[in-house]
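FIELD: query
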Amino acid sequence: MARTRQQTPAPSPVGLAAAEPADIQRLVEELDSMLSRLRLGAIREQLDGLLEEAARRQLNLREALAWLCAAEVTSKEQRRLSMAMTIARFPFVRTLEGFEFEAQPSIDPGKIRDLATCRWVANGDNMVLLGPPGVGKTHLEVALGREAVARGYTVQFTTAMELLGSLVKGQQQGSLEARLAQYSKPKLLINRCAEGCAYDELGYLPLEPQAGHLFFQLISRRYEQGSVLISSNRPVEEWDEVFGDQVVAAAILDRLMHHSHVVTIRGDSYRLREKRRAGLFRTPAGGSSSAGIGGLPPPTPAKEA
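FIELD: result
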C-alpha cells in the first residue's frame, strides 16, 4: 500500500491564543514550510528584507501584513504576465507609447487608446487593420495584444501562413477538429501582419484551394465567442479574389465584420521613409510612396465602422 504523507496539523486559533513562547518559536521555525504550503513564494523568498523594510517604516501589524501581501500579489502578477506573453508568442516587443502617431496622421490616437482598453475583446468583437505595407499594422497588433494580456485575456499571435498551413495539415491528417479547437481557445487570436503572408498581407501569395473553407470554419467557431485581430493590405472588397471564391469570402466577411472595429491607415511606409532620409529613394512626384508598392496601385480604403 502507498504510504500516506503526514502533514503537520495547522494550529487552531484557540490554540494560538493560548500558545506558550516555545510554541511560538516552533511556529517561527516552521514558517518557511508553512509559506511554501500556502504557495506564498515571494514572501518566503523576500521575508527578511520585507520585514526589515516594514520595521524601518514603523508599520503596525495590519500594515505589515498588507505590505507582505502586496509583495506576493505583485510577484504573482509578474509571473502571470511573463508566462502569458510567452504563450502568446509575440515576435517582438511593441507598445502604444512607442507608436509614432504623428507619422501616421490618418490614425486617430484616441480611437487606438480606446481600443487598448480591450472592451472589444471582452465583448468578443473583431478588429481589422487595413493599409499598405510598412505603415505600422504589426506594431499595433503586437501593442494591442500586449494590452489584452495585461488585462488578463489569453492571446495567441500567429502568422497567416502558419495558421492556414496548420489547418490544411490537420485536414490531411484527420486532426482538423483538434486544430480548430486549439485556435478557438484564446480570447484574442491575432494574425500577424507581415509582407509575404497570404492573409495578413492578403494577395501576396496564393492560398491553398481549401484554405478559405478552413478559415471560414475557424471564424464561424469563434463568432461572438472570441475576438480576431486581422490585417490586410487589400481592401475587403477584393478578398473574393484572394480566396478565389466569392461565396466563401462573403461568408467570412459576414461573420468577421458583423461586430468589428476597422482601422484604415493611409500613410507612408516607415521603412521607405527611412531609406528616403538616407538618400536611397526619392519621393515619387505627386505624393507619398504608398501611392504605389511594387508597381501596384494603393489599396482602396474600406468603409470604417
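FIELD: remark
Strands lie at 126-130, 155-159, 188-192, 227-232, 260-264.
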